[in-house]
Amino acid sequence: MLKHLSAAHAPFTRFFGYGIVFGLSLVLGSVLMAKVPYENEQIEARVALMNTQKTALSVLTDMASGRRAFNKRHARDAKNTLIETTKGIKPHFKHIEMDAHTLARPNLWTNWEDFELRAKNAQRAAKRLNPRSADTLRQSLPAMIKGCHSCHERYKLQDREFTTH
After folding, report:
1. I need a surface site. Which of 21, 58, 118, 154 has the fewest CB within 10 A?
2. Would 164 be classed as within a structural domain?
């Protein structure tokens, strides 16, 4: 009789066992993937600045590509965010700060004048964004993207995690 009960409950036991293993894997994976707190406030501020720019640029690229409905107010807000945050590039990177969170290459500081010029070009491109319509946005957006990529190609390490910008 005991063998009969064990055999009858084997699928449940097996399923339950797999569920526990899966659940523990999720918990352990979450713990291992948790972000380590920033040790350096300047680097944390730089990362926040770049993430703010990435978010604003994503709003504009989504509108320009048709993935998001064009909204003039939202486009103007994203433009203003890019104008303000590009002003902060030079001050946020002025001091040589490196830790596990930074994606800045050390050559950024040895080529400071070039970096400043690229940051200034990104700010000019942000000011020239034209959010009056989806068409004018599409025409003005490539210069902004080029401004971002110009710096990133030369002064940014490869991301350590999947990002789109």
Report:
1. 21
2. no
